[in-house]
Amino acid sequence: MTKPWSLALGFISFFLLSLGASGFTRPAPGRIMITRHNKSESHPQQVHISAVGADGMRISWITDDKHVPSIVEYGKAPGKYDMSATGEHTSYRYFFYASGKIHHVKIGPLEPDTVYYYRCGGVGDEHSFKTPPATLPVEFAIIGDLGQTEWTASTLGHVGKTNYDMLLLPGDLSYADTNQPLWDSFGRFVEPYASKRPWMVTEGNHEIETFPILHSHPFDAYNARWRMQYEESGSTSNLYYSFDVAGAIHVIMLGSYTDFDSKSDQYKWLVKDLAKVDRGQTPWLIVLLHAPWYNTNTAHQGEGEAMRKAMESPLYNARVDVIFVGHVHAYERFTRVYDNKANSCGPVHITIGDGGNREGLARDFDENHKSVSLSLLREASFGHGRLKVVNRTHAHWSWHRNDDSDSTVADEVWLDSLNASEACKTDPSLGYSGTPVVDEL
Ligand SMILES: *[C@@H]1O[C@H](CO)[C@@H](O)[C@H](O)[C@H]1NC(C)=O
Ligand SMILES: *[C@@H]1O[C@H](CO)[C@@H](O)[C@H](O)[C@H]1NC(C)=O
Ligand SMILES: *[C@@H]1O[C@H](CO)[C@@H](O)[C@H](O)[C@H]1NC(C)=O
Ligand SMILES: [Fe+2]
């Protein structure tokens, strides 16, 4: 799979792509860490898991050997697999690169907050994961723009040191940038974390990977490798979907790089999905997407503006609590906003694009930006976020900065669920599309 000429071609295309990259100054990024596969061709690698349905898990992994069956054996004690499931497999080609056999196996029903031991392909190493709890509290680790550098290793090291239930990633995973073997390296790099807790991801610009003339179809590697539970939420695309956590949180993953205007499938799906949320049962509503709608960094200015114009109103009308974004390689937290003004019924916007990829940090914030008064804290450092949803009304957000080998809490704030706010009550029967229900508060 990782043939030398394939790597060489990848680096050539990567070089051509970099020529077109925009030019703001960044400090020295971390070195890329290549993670090799040194076991047999039939040995399962790149194991990662994602939540599927109310009580299932999708186990995804790759073998170079196409004869390995898509089977996962699992159970609640090490080495004792009393259950098993068979799934599906896929593969893709990119220029001269041919992927291994990419297996996706749904297992379950699983008990909540329980450790399961599992083995892939009947031959792999034993892995284990913990399912999310059925009730609050629940804790999310949130990281954007991850990559696979020394800084990424530091961020993931901190993520893995303390317990959490699920990882949310608002786009830009491997930074393979058409060099397909780097996707395989990334899969192996994150396996120690992504095989233990569900990783729920949405796509960023680095997942698009079209190449003039040679490869016109977008997201082929991403969709084949990082398959998320979109059908279960009525979506027809792996690029946007939603799911519930702990019976109290609805998480919506949106796609910044697919159509989002009011006539698009994504928009129609979003409005329907919002209408299905019963806030009496599900007081928390969280959204992730890649390109920020609010951003005072000089990097990527205005790139999320068309999507903001198209989708801000339905999200506001549905009283989304918080929107996590990436793309800008820095941290920034805004006050509650709607339509470029502070609004106590709007979502908090948080940029958490500081996972540690090879492009380094976006250091320059614009002191004269029109949104400066809405921006409460901003800093260009690597790190990750934690959202601990404590109960139906309170959640604690913290940003954990990488200070060399330590992790330091550099921002924290309590968030109140908008559902609990009398002043922000809406009438769900009005639906969530069209003009705002409440203009000014
Ligand atoms: C095999 O790969 C693992 C993970 O990259 C590494 O820790 C280990 O040292 C490697 N072993 C050999 C013999 O290269
Ligand atoms: C929810 O958690 C907050 C913060 O810990 C606490 O102040 C509040 O009393 C809790 N509410 C309920 C209903 O337990
Ligand atoms: C959330 O809203 C629903 C419907 O308005 C209401 O029944 C429920 O009590 C609210 N939850 C909280 C925690 O306020
Ligand atoms: Fe990005």
UniProtKB/TrEMBL annotation:
<dbReference type="InterPro" id="IPR015914">
    <property type="entry name" value="PAPs_N"/>
</dbReference>
<dbReference type="Pfam" id="PF16656">
    <property type="entry name" value="Pur_ac_phosph_N"/>
</dbReference>
<dbReference type="InterPro" id="IPR029052">
    <property type="entry name" value="Metallo-depent_PP-like"/>
</dbReference>
<keyword id="KW-0325">Glycoprotein</keyword>
<dbReference type="InterPro" id="IPR039331">
    <property type="entry name" value="PAPs-like"/>
</dbReference>
<dbReference type="GO" id="GO:0046872">
    <property type="term" value="F:metal ion binding"/>
</dbReference>
<protein>
    <recommendedName>
        <fullName>Purple acid phosphatase</fullName>
        <ecNumber>3.1.3.2</ecNumber>
    </recommendedName>
</protein>
<dbReference type="InterPro" id="IPR041792">
    <property type="entry name" value="MPP_PAP"/>
</dbReference>
<dbReference type="InterPro" id="IPR025733">
    <property type="entry name" value="PAPs_C"/>
</dbReference>
<dbReference type="InterPro" id="IPR004843">
    <property type="entry name" value="Calcineurin-like_PHP"/>
</dbReference>
<feature type="domain" description="Purple acid phosphatase C-terminal">
    <location>
        <begin position="346"/>
        <end position="412"/>
    </location>
</feature>
<keyword id="KW-0479">Metal-binding</keyword>
<keyword id="KW-0378">Hydrolase</keyword>
<comment type="similarity">
    <text>Belongs to the metallophosphoesterase superfamily. Purple acid phosphatase family.</text>
</comment>
<keyword id="KW-0732">Signal</keyword>
<dbReference type="Pfam" id="PF00149">
    <property type="entry name" value="Metallophos"/>
</dbReference>
<feature type="domain" description="Calcineurin-like phosphoesterase">
    <location>
        <begin position="140"/>
        <end position="331"/>
    </location>
</feature>
<dbReference type="InterPro" id="IPR008963">
    <property type="entry name" value="Purple_acid_Pase-like_N"/>
</dbReference>
<keyword id="KW-0862">Zinc</keyword>
<feature type="signal peptide">
    <location>
        <begin position="1"/>
        <end position="23"/>
    </location>
</feature>
<keyword id="KW-0408">Iron</keyword>
<feature type="domain" description="Purple acid phosphatase N-terminal">
    <location>
        <begin position="44"/>
        <end position="131"/>
    </location>
</feature>
<dbReference type="Pfam" id="PF14008">
    <property type="entry name" value="Metallophos_C"/>
</dbReference>
<dbReference type="GO" id="GO:0003993">
    <property type="term" value="F:acid phosphatase activity"/>
</dbReference>
